[in-house]
Amino acid sequence: MAENRYNVDDILREVREKRERAERTARDAQAAAAPQRQPAETRAPEQPAEPSPEELLRRVAPGPAAAEPQQELLRWEEPKLPKAPVTQSERHPSPRGAVPEPEKTEEQSASAAQEIPIPKKQAGPVWESAAARKTAEALMQTLKKRQRGLAVTLILNLLILLGVLYLALAPAYHLLLPGFLATSSPMRLWGMVALTAVSALCCGGTLGNGFLALFPGRQSNDSYVTLTVFACLLQGSFMAAQPQLLEQYGNNIYLPLAAAILFFNTWGKLVKNARQRESCRAMASLRPVACRTLPQGRLTEWAQGLPEQPEKTVTLDAAGLPKDAEAVLEETGQTEGISGVLAPITILAAIAMAVLDYLLVDGSVFEAVSIFTSALCITSPLAATLGSHMPLRSTNQALSRWRANLLNEDAVEELYDTDGVLLRGSDLFPAGSITLHGIRTFEKKPIDEAILNAASVLCSTDNTLTGIFRGMITNEKNLKPVESVTCEEGRGLSAWVDGGRVLIGNRNLLLAHGVAVPPLEVEAGFAAEGKELLYLSNFGSLSAGFVISYHADKQLKLQLQELERAGIALMVYSTDPNITPERVGQVYGLQQENIHMVPAALQREAEAALDGTGETAAEMVSGSMAGSLHSILSAQREHGVARAVTVLLILSVLIGFALITLLAYSDALARATWWTVGAYQLLWLVPTVLLGLMRKR
């Protein structure tokens, strides 16, 4: 059977036209036969010969039940209690009218006590694709300009690093030098100082930012660089001014390390800039998403009482454009944040060690300066800036195939410890995941007003079926005002439209309100084919049934299964009675015991939590719920990589400082040459960079 989608406005228009033609034909026939017929008031009007709305709809949308005899649908299953008159139970002027409801049994009263009014969905944060592109383009121009400056600085730093290394290695390897440098060691040393000073000037912003980062409240890897470079320049100038020190401490000149630190710091900033540009491009086309934790209350208590016992349950909601997108992209994470603590401590420890050596060991001023410089060089990791930004960039490169992007390290900090996710039913079954196979009418009643009433109710709530009914109505201005939308757990929706009750749900909903429904055999035929029959009742009588089926979104299915393997609890809030753990588990290949439906008593809290309160900054951008869920898993992995990088950096600093302390107080500082310290730094650089480059698609 072909699966069809409908523009019901066109169907209803054709129904009305045929009905009008039938009425005109009947009137003409009556007028022609008037002398030979009894008065109209004594005879029942003849039925029109044209097809009924039900038959026309079946011609347009044949369904599996079309082959069943009509009498099968008309064998109603009456409710157990007598139905109250429509004028009293299903119609009143307004939800607050004075007409009393019919008396209910104990079972019906218990059911009504669980009915939770659903507030209309609040207007989400304003987001427009045109405004997003405009903001992203302006920021992209700034980032590209910064990239060009960093690229030029990196090239200059590389050339200077090679020049300083060449001058440092020239005496040992008899490299070619101009005459005035080959014959004068002080001049060669002054040349190294000059080149390093030029490199420092090229990175003036880095040094200034590093100096400010030494004060509380600032976090930057530049704090490692500033005093290290100045200490190397001071020691080199001191030695160049006293050439007699070269014979004993010629290999303890740390200027090559200063040039290397500046080069790798600039390289790390280029990686950061590349990550920011990728995030900026994503912001231009993808919707901002905010991650919000559940507010404290009954909903949180219920979530924490689930078998998985999640401690942190989040919702993933649409957010508005960041007010300061550049500041959002500049947010730092744990790896760079540790420098705000570690760098000042190592600097103070290096100063204390140098002063103690000068006062207690009767060392010279130059030895104290050398101890201070060597301690800073070995505790200023070459991989500090690279290690801070490589993991997130690698993560976002892997996320790009899912059309998602984590904007900064704060997003990782917010998402990494998530162990529960609350989703809407419409998140699990977005547009395209539900197919309407047919519309079944009952008792040959007009369906145009019935569908309009149903569309008015569903378009006023966030329901998985809203998209189908919104597609049926070409002009939403025709929708009617809806009052007192109520969700009954496991049954469906009820509301008041034009002073009458409209019911949209399963057979249990209609029976609870005294509406007769077809026998169970009718639904069993659809269920055998994986379809559901959703009923529509208007003003106390059954109007239509919608044959629908649910399908899995392939990408979302992969992510939900990954969440299940990661032990993340899945909670679902839905007003669609067909969305059950059994249905979700069947469609998405999940274990039913890991799917938890929000109970009716907590649906008001769930709606409020999913709507979000106040302004929340966007932590990521995503093109789909599958991308948002994959971002959670990616954030967990990135946080683990960033933590491993942080551990490597801390170990390199602590072990390095311990080695310098041991050499200084064992009178073996001469062994801490610039190439041994450089080899130590490279030993930690390689695994840190390789770890940051790892990514999982």
Write a brief caption for the model.
The chain has 697 residues and is an alpha+beta fold. The protein is built from 29 helices and 14 strands.
Q: What does it look like?
A:
This protein is an alpha+beta fold. The strands form 2 sheets. Strands 1-7-8-9-10-11-6 form a 7-stranded antiparallel sheet, with helices on both faces. The protein has a 7-stranded mixed sheet with strand order 4-14-2-3-5-12-13, with helices on both faces. The radius of gyration is 37 Å and the shape is elongated. 45% of the residues are buried.
Key words describing this protein structure:
697 residues, alpha+beta, seven-stranded antiparallel beta sheet, seven-stranded mixed beta sheet, 29 helices, 55% helix, disordered N terminus
Largest sheet: 7 strands, antiparallel
**Rounded mean pLDDT score:** 80
Uncertain ranges: 1-8, 35-91, 93-124
Strand content: 5-15%
How many helix segments?
29
Strand order of the largest sheet: 1-7-8-9-10-11-6
Number of strands: 14
Shape: elongated
Structural class: alpha+beta
Q: Roughly how many Å apart are the termini?
A: 38 Å
Rg calc = 37 Å
Walk me through the topology.
Blueprint lengths: L7 H25 L20 H8 L9 H5 L11 H4 L16 H8 L2 E2 L11 H45 L5 H4 L2 H18 L1 H10 L8 H20 L4 H4 L5 H31 L1 E7 L4 H7 L8 E6 L6 H6 L3 H4 L1 H22 L4 H14 L5 H16 L4 E3 L2 H7 L4 E5 H4 L5 E8 L6 H11 L7 H7 L9 E7 L3 E6 L2 E6 L1 H6 L7 H8 L4 E7 L2 E10 L3 H12 L3 E5 L7 H8 L6 E3 L5 H9 L8 E3 L2 H41 L8 H20 L4
Parallel strand pairs: 3-5, 5-12, 12-13
Antiparallel strand pairs: 1-7, 2-3, 2-14, 4-14, 6-11, 7-8, 8-9, 9-10, 10-11
Helix pairs in contact: 6-8, 6-12, 8-10, 8-12, 9-10, 10-12, 10-17, 12-18, 16-17, 16-28, 17-28, 18-28, 18-29, 19-28, 21-22, 25-28, 28-29
